[in-house]
Records
---
Amino acid sequence: MATVLSGNAAAAWGFRLSRVQCYPYYPITPSTGCSQQISRWVNDGAMDALTINAESEHSAASQIIAAGKSVRAGTATSSKGLLYMIEVLENAAGAGVPAGIFLGNRATGAPINIWADNTDAYAMRDSGAIQLFASDAQSALDGVIQGYRIAEDIKVRLPFSVNLRGFTGTHAYEGVEIPDQKAVDSLLPSYVPLYSLFAPGKPVTYGAMLSAYPYRRHKRNQMEVLRQATAVAQKVGKEFGKTFGRAYGLFEWIGDPKADLVIALMGESASPGEVVVRHLQGREGIPGVALLKIRLFSPFPAREIAEALAKAKTKAVVVLDEGLQHGAVFPPLAQRLTTAVHLHLEGKGPRIASVIGGLGGSEVRQEHFQLMFALADNIAAGKPVRTEPYWLDIDEDPIFCESEAQVSPKLLKKWGEVWRRHERKEKYFAPIPADTHEIRIYSRAGQGAITSAVGFTGAGILSGHQLLTVPAFGSERRGAIITTDTLINLNKDKKVRSFNRAWNAVVLYDDTILYSPEHQVLDGLKEGGLLLVNTANLTTKKIRQILNASESRVRVFTVNANEIAHRIGLKHINMTMLGAFHKAYQEIPFDVAQTYYEKNVPRPRDASMEAIRQGFAQTTDQVTIKPKKESRLVTTQEFLDWRPDDHGMESWPSAVEEYQHG
Amino acid sequence: MKPEERILESPNKHKDFVVSGSLVSIRDRQSKLATQAEAASKAEGKVLTAGEILTIEEVAAKSIDGLDMAKTLSAMGDIGPEARLFIYRPNGKLARHEVFADPRVCVDIHRGAVIENLTEKPKDVSGWRTHEFFIDTKGCLGDECGRCAIVCPENAIHLRGKGKGSFHEIDPLACKGCYICWVECVRTAADCILVDGKTFDPVMRAKHFGE
């Protein structure tokens, strides 16, 4: 059965199953979780490795290179941390050291941005490492194992990185099949160094200075070695499929094998694209559509991709780059694909347009794919195409210009002709029916909403569904309002990882969120959806009044979770709310869920289970509930009761006094 | 309670490094120093076995236990001259083997530009020097001194012989003529190192010592 893991934890499992022997790290958001997990395993004795708390990413990279000459080594990093490593990584590639890096992809400042895009991976693209892009937690785990196999192949011997989109990939919780250790061992034999370390009989020098003649000859060899990685990656992906039933290629062609219109992209954002491809396929008046999900970015499988496009007789390719280096006017994936088509198809290839989106944590949504397919349709019809990239979600620079007053006048002068001749074909924009249920939790940071949502995910997976939980991270502090989203896939055949942002249920862990001007909790809630509120003294009627929803068909449930948690003696209300949610939302059977919770809820387990059961029992959608006396946790009450007048500042002990009194 | 004490392994002959808790203290040596032989045998155990990469000639010349030689050689023959056999034999037992085509184009450069120090051909740098250096065997203290051999940056000075009658010799291909041995020689008075056949040149001495 699948285990619920975050993307980071899945990558950590990848390192653990690969039996990594040396893991130096310098943690950085969003890949910290991977290092944290490995560090814990090593401490507990579950993993036999040496972890080193490096003093910088530069040192961590140096250490994996030093270790990687003799043992299997790996680390995880992101963003600026990776940029700091790149200086050393070129040594790894030049000296042929197979070490592994897991990357939680993140933007690089300035301006500072902790959220996802591929800019860091793009910065590393010329450092000589093999770059694999994972699209979910499972492929991150599989990618790390395969990465070591590819990197350590006797024909290759190069460093590698496995990329996963930050937060929506690294912090998303989903069901992951953890492979069997024995099967992994048979696929990935132990590390073999090419030179013994400190062997007295055969001393060697790595990275010695070479003059022009041997240097250029070495570079000639290095390029040839990097080329080998393409074939090896393909072979290893196939072998992996034979062992574990999940085969991987250099890229994945999703959709019509004879697609006229193709969107090329990498990584996790392909999931909304898959939904759109399924939706558009076979619709009247729409030519064949497909996604080209590229997995191996470096070395770029140019010939293979060009051949695939030629075989499908594709007419237009829209390349989506989810990152842009600071010096780029044309982004890297589009560049590489354009070069591939130009070199290998000699002018007979498809027309190409570049689109930039998903920057700094921007979501690439289903409607973006509809837009891009509509754009591809125009290009395939022979209409003029912009030679500079298109952008997603920039109002002044839209893909289709609906009102010329809105767009930037500068751009109108330059690209007005292209905009005018393009036609936004409505058949691409038919609404996509959702076969998912989506739940949003509004809570205050520290209330444990993620723990309960992850628990719910596990329960859902046990009852046979595919679930995904994506918490929002970033600007929260303790007490701030945060959201945690869970997706339940009702279509058992196909995996879905993209949200429609139409909520079947909204849960408020705190009734004060009702008054927050920044959060309109009914926004996006489906008609007939349910709203569950943790409240001590609001009736469902009152809640409707506050939300101006007296006439709405929204079903409102209330529970007094504070009181229940307080009575049981729990500090957090999350377990009570979990039980309450099962009462309101009955798609996941409560009895199956309970068998999962009994083994997996936070300690003390008995109290947590009691909270779940009581939450379930005491949730109601009745209006006639008698308001109970407000019950708050003692610490909350103290906080609320505190007034500045009660304590003159002079009565507070100063730091000096405290020190003197010991 | 006093935390348990542990002595760090160290080659220092005079001091012990004692770890108790998170504190490291230094005291005069009480523990027995591991003899060189012991240290060497310990280090021997830690040397990792490396994989070997053999050409078809090398494979043909020797027999490898546990390997189907005929099959391997025919597989290598199919690939051609760039065929290589990768074998890994920890503790002398064959654990892994793979026939592959060497991806290199320039086969004189090792993978990863690694230099195997002992197989490197020495470079003739005799053209660099403007003076000829020579060690007078009569003046040299042999293995009692060896200062010149230690300071030579090019590793051009080698000890010949053993005990009494041993002496040092300069490799004329490796000597760049840097004067370091000449400056550092303890036997200046005995005129051990000759420059251009001269035993003692006041002008040169003034130049190098500022006298």
---
Amino acid sequence: MNFSHLPTSRRAFLGMAAGSGLALAAGTGSTPVQAAKTQTSAKIVILGAGAGGASIANRLVDRLQGAHITIVDGRPQHWYQPGFTLIAAGLKPAGYSISSTEQWLPSGINYINEYAAEVDPDAQRVTTTGGTRLEYDYLIVATGLVLDWDAIDGFSLDQVGQNGLGAVYAGPEYAATTWRALDDFASRGGRAVFMRPTTDMKCAGAPIKYTFLTDDHLRRKGTRDASEVVYTTPGQALFSVPIVTEKLELIMRRQEVDVRRHHVLKAIDTSARIATFATPEGDVTLEYDFTNVVPPQRAPQVIRDSGLSWADRWTDQGWIEVDMATLRHKRYPNVFGIGDINGVPKGKTAASVKWHLPVVEDHLVSELGGREGTRTFNGYTSCPLITRVGRAMLIEFDYHDNLVRSFPGLVAPLEELWISWLMKEVALKATYNAMLRGRA
Amino acid sequence: MEEFKISTFIAVFEEMFGVALWWLLVAVAVVITAAYLYVLIRDRAMSMRKFLLAQLSMPFGAIIAVLFVLHITNSQFSDLGGPVDVIVLLGVALLGAGGLSILVYVAQSLFRGKQA
């Protein structure tokens, strides 16, 4: 049986389908034959121990013998970010997304619990905030991105949870605080205002999901009629994939969500509950009773200062200049990128990370073995787009806006289905964790 | 690398339930299945009397399985949005029905003996 080129979610689903226990009780616990490890003394530095960094560390340990692998990350907590939406919908506690960074890392590597302070790709050296200098032969950049809260005038994280202010993507605790604000708002009703930034962002469907979840919660609490739900978008389209946009337009209309286009959040008055948006016609203010602030998202400053970023694209965001197929840096061939930090047209999701991993692994391990890597990334991105508690659309697409169907003839990508919700609720985290361990 | 591997399924299930619980569930399933085969071989026939009770337990197994899945997934019947959802729900019901009926049959055979 060959299920080649199937995304993570399909495996998870097939696993669920087989999940009575009885089916597996026949006991096919065979271990796949491990390829011989590649001998090397290469010094490999991985920046970031999140989804991309931890996973590639585990994969490289499995494939390489003698490599000196160092992983650098200052945050002791690992965050399962796809869980933030569920936390902010009151379905999971904050702890659902929190684990320790260290628990996902393999033994036999050097883990430095500090951030990178300087990256010099010419000298092939990383300096940490603690002053440790790390020379490398290969660098894997998997830092993720940073949320630029300072770009929103008047916003402060310490106000989240008060006066209807939410910030789901600031972290698990903030997501939980946002849920309390949403639940409080839904008890009374009023105007909820949502948005996305002009920059690229992680999981571009996330603010839309949260808009729908808010609508759902208002309906369940019986306050939808007394409420107004507003979704603002910086451009004309709701989503980067045209056919998905068409479907979202229909759902927005059905759910009576007021869509305002060409709106970019620039300031917020949290005590007066007024959001100010830049629009082509000048500034527009919107009063709100509940909002989820989504600020611009950019590469961490240390990466933007390193010279690894594109010089002529995403200049306000700083994503690194990698080949969109091989994820190898275009000017520094001993540098690779995994995850949100990559300057590629699509793919700032954990599902994309899943597909970045074998590509980077292949090219790096092949080179160390004296061969040339062959694998490529096609832009695969996946978003279980929740439309209410209990239903989601499994949206998967590639660089060319093709809808990728993991389950052709079974799970329609533009249908709001329970099975897609089950994948998000039950199978996704387990698959993600297996990915972190290098096993999926 | 991207070919289907049983180890990937196992890894996902280990993460879903925790390593200990997952293998405990597998062990329980193996034991019940083995016990079922044991009583069939021991008795050299299916007892229709025991099978009747096992059959009567099936709707309960189906309902319990469906309600359990709905509960742990924050779902309700109205969330079913297409044919595939109905198939999944029926599959859950079928597994619950089959699982409980085998359990009931085995329990009768082991505790009430061959003749009962």
---
Amino acid sequence: MKLRALVPILVFVVVPVGVLAFVLHGLLGAEWARLGRESDGAAKLTLAASAERMRVVLDAAFDGLRRFDADDPLCKDIRTVPRGMASGFSRPERESRRGKASSIPLFKESRRAVENYILERGDAVYVCRPEENGSVTVGSVNVTALDARLAPLLPQNPSAGFAYALRRGKTLLAQSGGDVAQGRRLSSETVSAEAPGWVVAVYRIGEAHVAGSSRFAANILVLFATLAFIFAGLVAVALALSRARREAAKRSDFVSHVSHELRTPLTSVRLYAEMLRDGKVPEGKRQSYLETLVRESERLSRLVDHILDFSRLDRKSRRYSPREFDVLSRTREIVAMQESRLKDAGLEPTVAAEEGLGEAKAVLDPDSFEQVLLNLLENAARYAPESGRLAATLGRKEGRLVLSVADSGPGVPAKAAKRLFTPFFRAETGLVAKVNGFGLGLHIARSLMRGQGGDLTYAPNDPHGAVFTIVFPERT
Amino acid sequence: MKTSAISMFAAALAASGVIAAESAKITVSLDRPVLPAAKAQHCYVKVELEAPSLPPAKAKRMPVNLCLVLDRSGSMTGERIARARDAVAEVVRHLSREDILSIVTYDDSAEVVVPAQHVENPESFMPTIRSIQPRGCTALFAGVSQGAAELRKNVAGPYVSRLVLLSDGQANVGPDSPAALGDLGASLAREKIGVSTVGLGVGYNEELMLTLAQKSGANAYFAENPRDLERIFTDELGDALTTVVRGTVVTVKGTNGVKPVSVIGFDSKIDGVTATIPIDSLGGGQKKYVLVELEVPAASAGTSLGLADISIGYETVADCRKRTLDGQAVAKFSDEDAVVKSSVDKGVAREVLRMKNAETKQKMYESNLRRNLGDVDVLGRIQSSFNSDAAAAYDMEDAEMKEFQDELSAAREEASRAPMSGRKLKFRLSKSRGELNQQRTSSVGGSTDADSTEKTR
């Protein structure tokens, strides 16, 4: 896995998610707290309203019970307890103060209840009325029926996250909104001051956990984001290091390339020059030795030019002097100049224009145009010798001029075609291995064309060979 | 099958052809209209109420204020909830716009799924019914409370108010003792709300369900299989639809030193010389009777004595009017044994024996349920001696007595041997409870008896 492939993921996914997580965590944390407080408040209001409804029902129920009506559904039974036996029923306050009533008092005596008071003994609840003759009328209260009147008054369909419970003493009578055993009690309220045995309470269930889990998720996200940032940093450092290393390697490659390329002609020049100085050359061969010296010097200066070009283009400091010229005639001139060299290499150069091209003028730096074309012709001579026709064709495509140079040589292997324009790249085929070169020519040519709004591309020729196409803007 | 119960009632409606305004009838009879003179003794008075016939078919039937309270706790999965939904859907399809329907479900808490409303279009309830899914605990008390609250909205109107409670498990949220639920049932009965209970499978608390139904004066059912639910629900609806009289209370007040001692089969309250027996609702043309045991002081031969003043208070559903019927139990006293014996009302005598035996059988099964196997034999011995005393007093044929004795021995044998399976107990208890309550609909699911069902397994 290349580090570079991680860059888009880091830039477009990991880092934004991390940033978002940090921001959300900050914002939501405050919002959650606020919402929590608000909804807790609302739930407490709902609780109070529910308790109030129950209070009304309880009060009405006891008003009814104090009428001692045997048909009252909340009344189990009505009896009259004679004077002697009534004592137990006549001291409710003392009884409840001594704690003889049920362990959790359901009722508290109140002013209202003095006349017809409410009494608990054991599990039973009574309404009592002292009569004039000393006896006491006792109505036993159907507490379960009373429970059943209150239970439906719990909040129905409470908002998510809250549950309500109604208890009498320790008995859970009913709940709504969920199982309160799973929740945390927020608040509770006694239904009626007169009947403190019934208590309604509100619980936080589920949602608190939901909020907790989303908070947990956010924390995980933040952790993930932090890790992502660290990871991104490490990747960036690694990328910088590997780039620096590659730069260094490239530079040393360049130096070794250059030294190697310069050494070959230099060696020739030195050897021939030494032989000539020492007078060891037969008279008949002197001329040919001198020609070799000149040729090798030319090659040397060409190499130096290339290196300078490359260096200038690499630094983007190459200056162009554009001029208007007729492309077809300029092409013919350049090809004609090289004709003998190309013929020596076994090539038949032709220059033609597409049908109906008409006048084709461009504004380009003529020297760079010449350099590009010469490079293509030179390449054909070197890499596709003895392959017959070398056709330069000028045409027009999408408002631009197109000059293609097609040979019928071995062409470029598909795998190498992709990197053809990369500096110092040379396709490692048998043929190429025999040919000297920097692997800079095509890179320089393309850079020259691109620097002036044009381009240089490669395509395989049919059935074999290479087609290099120069594209550049037409002067209109 | 599904519509049979309903169509049966419809046929009954059509056949009766009697006008609704016809009033109820009271019949008071003694097991022995002539009692032996000069000794204190016990005798039985039978008070029977015959409800007025149903209105003719073309007239409107009684509208119903129905609340279906469904257990949807976690145990109601699969076929159970599916069959329960089908049963509910079937019941709802039989309702019309005069009827009021509410549906309550309960799990951890009770939820009003359908608030009390007129049934304008039964199909509109179907999506809601289909959406009922099982989950959570069994808050039976909350379910009943909520259902009662829905019924209470219309309880004052001219409706038969009925709560049908379905449960397959033990109540585990809220009050869960049979006594507490019995109190609730009794209170609801006073509000003219009947609670019919349907126990599904063998996991429910039969004591709680029976007590709740019994105290509220409605029916108890045992559905062994979820397939039985539809029939039970439609039967129950049929029962509610044909109810013409509700809030029925029989009062027997002893006169001339006579005291009521016990009441067979029904839950009653005896305060001094007055016995109050709520028997709640009756269907059109239905007869229900109570048997009250009286303690009669010694009287001299040739006298005629008023034993008790009897009154039946009831409310007709059609017009919500309270009515009262009065009667009196009068006995003659004679020295001659032959006169006493020839006076025996064989019909009443048989019913006394039948109900006493049924009551004892229920007690035997309840003892078995509480694992008090020793009590079963004691109960059996007491009942046997009662039977032989009665045979002598009523001058009954041996063959006739043998029938009661055989049934009793079979029950005694079954209940005293070993703890019975929950399923069998539920069958037996539901049957004897149905018998004692004179329930019109079959109290156990499926058409087969417990034994034959067992054989097929």
